[in-house]
Amino acid sequence: MTSPLRWHDAMERALYGPDGFFVSGAGPAAHFRTSVHASPVFAACLARQLEMVDAALGHPARLDVVDVGAGRGELLRALLAQAAPELAARIHLVAVERSARPPDLPPEIDWRADIPDGITGLLLATEWLDNVPVDVAVHTPAGWRLLLVDPATGQETVGPPPSPTDTTWLTHWWPPNPTPAPTKVIKEFVAAEGSDQDTNSFINAVGEGKGGVGGRAEIGWSRDLAWAEAVGRVARGLALAVDYGHLRESRPVDGTLTGYRGGRQVPPVPDGSCDVTAHVAMDSVASAGERVARCAYSLVSQREALRALGADGGRPPLSLASRDPAGYLRALATASAAAELTDPAGLGGHLWLRQPVGVALDAVVAR
């Protein structure tokens, strides 16, 4: 058994270490389906978003498009292919990723490990923040405690109290939910405390299901810092984050930490063999970005955002089939892809956070 680590450190090593999930291998597309990989409809909508940003900036001679957590550059390749010739001549595409540059990446796309400064244009972060490492806490009879994890097995144990920074974030953004305390959690707490009490006596004393213990939380201030830094690199334009997320009034009681490998959800074992991810506290992230941008932001579902940008999941009229069979089939395929992207139970449930910098919100948000 290896020494247990804090989840933040285990995620960092498993995802971005020398043999980490995102650094080696075939890349994210081989393991899970994102909006970027699902359909060209997503890129088409982002191309319309880019056109709005371009207009709000007055059509600058150079329009930056920076994709943070770019995978293997799939989204930037699609945007380059979809851009009108006049726009394609002005856009400067930058992929930010820790892995090596793909050998088949078009030369028009720059590749770097850090976010450039002075961006004038659009900064994209599609399913990036959910992979920014976080610590995980559990609520015990004595309050929040960090969870430690064995990187080789994924087995968790109750660890020390969170830091003051952790506690401040949890108090404000993830207040504990009074849920029943599993016997396993109480046993781990007793062991961690070195209590002289018999475990069963302790369980009887606190009462399983009493005291607001047992709930889990992913401590999100590291993501707040990452997003604030990204927004701070935008001189003028729009920072757009698209991710699985939740809000303070509806935090999941047991958190969302999970894993993905080979297209299937798996236990989150941080050994580098799978993606380890957790949904994003999007209101906390938005607040951090707002303090940097000093502009109002927009936070809506992907379903609402894509429909405003022209994605329509409705079937084309049957009359088109008789007039233009090939056109009908193309329209049907587009509608099917749009329906997947806007399904509120799936990808459509993603949240879109748009934070303008130096431009009016109304100028970059389609209605």
From TrEMBL:
Domain of life of the organism in this record? Bacteria
Q: Which InterPro entries match?
A: NDUFAF7 (IPR003788), NDUFAF7_sf (IPR038375), SAM-dependent_MTases_sf (IPR029063)
Q: Name one GO molecular function term.
A: methyltransferase activity
Which one Pfam family would you cite for this protein? Methyltransf_28
Q: Which UniProt keywords apply?
A: Methyltransferase, Transferase
Q: Which GO terms describe its biological process?
A: methylation
Q: Which PANTHER family match?
A: PROTEIN ARGININE METHYLTRANSFERASE NDUFAF7, MITOCHONDRIAL
- Its recorded name reads SAM-dependent methyltransferase, MidA family
